[in-house]
Write a structure and sequence with these properties.
The protein is an alpha+beta fold. The chain is 47% helix and 13% strand. The strands form 6 sheets. A 4-stranded antiparallel sheet has the order 9-16-11-14. A 4-stranded antiparallel sheet has the order 10-15-12-13, with no helix packed on it. Pfam families: cNMP_binding.
Length: 567
């Protein structure tokens, strides 16, 4: 019947559910052999850990993945034990039925669970008579509606003007770009209106926003100890009287069981990463990475990650991952000729060098044409051509008349208070780097920059590590140390509050030039390179101001060195 329909509609008579993978073309004899080569290539381009992390964010049905769930429940106590042994337990805030978790949203704290991915419909849940009555009886309803309005008011201030699809909407906002006009209407309708006169649908919308607030992440001053206590008092009332019609919406946390609606990572942690602790995800992630390899969990998570959807054109993953995926997709075909035209521009230099080493040294079956914007005399290539303005200006290798043409003059010219976001904004406005920026841009920077704490002796920046962020010092002091080529350690200077450190990493793809260590407890805002470049695309004044500050610092350093030489 389906075949007849296909014929009548003029479509091709092929089964879309068939296995369309060609094993023979690239030289494989089976799915297992292809998978083995794929795993090797993932490691070559540094994609294996990225896929593993994607797997950690997957949600799985225990009935479909019983062995994986069993592995997770086995690893969970082992992870906690090692974190305790290494004094890293403060990097994770565990779920506790008796405590409010500042690193989890209000809604998760209220129900001590997470929405079921199968049945959850948030407005049906919030409008349910039991939910409405419980929130009113505990004094939460009106307060949360007002919290939601205050939050949306700030969202409009921060995100109006950003283009649709901007990454900040997914990462930081409670609304999408398409929803901004309706949100403005809600704010207008509710401004100065008595609570009882606010429309029911507007109340639900504002209530939904409040349910998403996470104190440690959003730092909006709307959640205090009194509110936390109200939520904790509502939690047992919610559990004791929950009707069956609502129970289907929630998967509750169980210290001895698995929560299907929560990501695998949350089930392993049985809690949330502490937003305010420096590098908590990386440090706990390293421990988890070790344990995952011990029991075979790592391979299962990579397999899950490979099955994940990445969106149209890879829209759900970063540019770095898209470039790595594209390279692996090309290499797995075992091509005779591979052309890489600035295809790895988003990768750090070390990863690019590793890929070049593999392609030029270990992959004899493929000829490589590598196009790169860097002025790089890489000895790994058999031949090297330098182009400028469409002309060959330099050539090396694989030529009987190998020569280096002189570069003409014209050619040469062309090569040439704790948790208070308002206080953070005021502090940023006193720093030269941000002083000349629009107030809305400074507030957006403060909102999107994680607030981190480094304890005495901890390292903020390590010499030689890749530079991916700058730090704005809110409080505390540090020191900058340099290890010379002779392996001597030299103190360069002190670091004090209201300083920006590591800012060169925002513009230059180079390793850290020095080590920065806290000499007392420090609180900083972390300005990620990706976030900064996103702001630059939106407002070029950000980049101009940074260039001015760096130029001024370079001038001061030059004068200091000149003065020392004269002495």
């Amino acid at each position: 019947e389906m075949y007849d329909e296909v014929q009548r509609s003029g479509n091709i008579p092929y089964d879309p559910s068939a296995n369309w993978i060609d094993y023979v073309g690239p030289g494989f004899s089976s799915r297992e052999e292809l998978h083995g080569e794929l795993m090797r290539l993932l490691e070559v381009v540094g994609l294996d850990r990225d896929i593993y992390r994607i797997g950690l964010q997957r949600r799985v049905d225990p009935a479909e993945h019983p062995e994986l769930v069993a592995s997770v429940l086995t690893v969970r106590p082992r992870l906690k034990e090692i974190l305790d042994q290494r004094q890293l337990s403060d990097l994770v805030e565990p779920y506790d039925i008796e405590k409010y978790n500042d690193n989890a949203p209000v809604g998760v704290n209220l129900v001590f669970g997470t929405p079921s991915q199968t049945h959850f419909e948030r407005f049906e849940f919030l409008s349910h008579p039991f939910m409405q009555q419980t929130l009113r009886d505990t004094g939460l309803y009106e307060r949360m509606v007002r919290m939601g309005r205050e939050t949306l008011d700030l969202m409009i201030e921060l995100f109006t003007g950003l283009p649709a699809g901007h990454e900040f909407f997914d990462r930081y906002s409670f609304v999408s770009a398409d929803e901004i006009p309706e949100v403005k209407n809600i704010l207008k309708r509710t401004e100065g209106v008595a609570f009882d006169d606010i429309r029911k649908e507007d109340q639900l919308h504002l209530l939904d926003v409040a349910m998403q607030l996470t104190p440690a992440r959003h730092r909006l001053r709307v959640i205090d100890d009194d509110f936390r206590q109200l939520v904790l008092s509502a939690r047992p009332k919610f559990h004791e009287n929950l009707p069956e019609s609502l129970a289907k919406f929630i998967d509750f946390f169980d210290g001895d069981g698995y929560t299907p609606a929560a990501p695998i990572l949350d089930n392993l942690l049985f809690g949330r990463f502490a937003y305010g602790r420096a590098n908590s995800e990386e440090r706990v992630g390293e421990v988890l990475f070790e344990i995952a390899h011990e029991g075979g969990l790592y391979e299962e998570l990579v397999a899950l990650g490979l099955e994940s959807q990445v969106g149209v054109g890879g829209s759900r993953v970063s540019q770095t991952l898209r470039q790595k995926i594209a390279l692996v997709r090309a290499l797995i075909k075992n091509p005779d000729l591979l052309v890489v035209d600035e295809g790895l521009s988003a990768l750090d230099r070390e990863t690019r060098e590793n890929v070049i080493s593999y392609l030029t040294g270990q992959n004899d079956n493929t000829s490589l044409l590598w196009v790169d914007g860097d002025d790089n005399d890489n000895e790994k290539f058999d031949a090297l051509l330098h182009m400028s303005n469409g002309k060959l200006v330099k050539r090396r290798g694989q030529s009987s008349d190998d020569q280096t043409p002189d570069i003409t003059e014209s050619d040469e010219e062309t090569t040439v208070a704790d948790g208070d976001i308002d206080q953070e904004v005021r502090l940023l406005r006193t720093i030269p780097l941000f002083a000349g920026l629009d107030a809305s841009v400074v507030k957006l920077l403060a909102f999107t920059s994680p607030r981190l704490t480094f304890k005495h002796g901890e390292v903020l920046v390590k010499q030689g590590d890749p530079g991916d962020a700058a730090y704005i010092v809110i409080s505390g002091r540090g020191e900058i140390w340099l290890t010379t080529d002779e392996m001597q350690t030299v103190k360069l200077r002190d670091v004090n509050p209201k300083e920006v450190i590591g800012e060169i990493a925002l513009l230059v793809d180079a390793p850290r030039s020095a080590t920065i260590r806290a000499v007392e407890d420090m609180t900083v805002l972390k300005l990620d390179k990706a976030e900064f470049l996103g702001l630059v695309r939106q407002d070029q004044a950000v980049a101009i101001q940074l260039i001015r500050v760096l130029a001024d610092r370079l001038d001061q350093t030059t004068k200091q060195l000149s003065s020392k030489n004269n002495d």
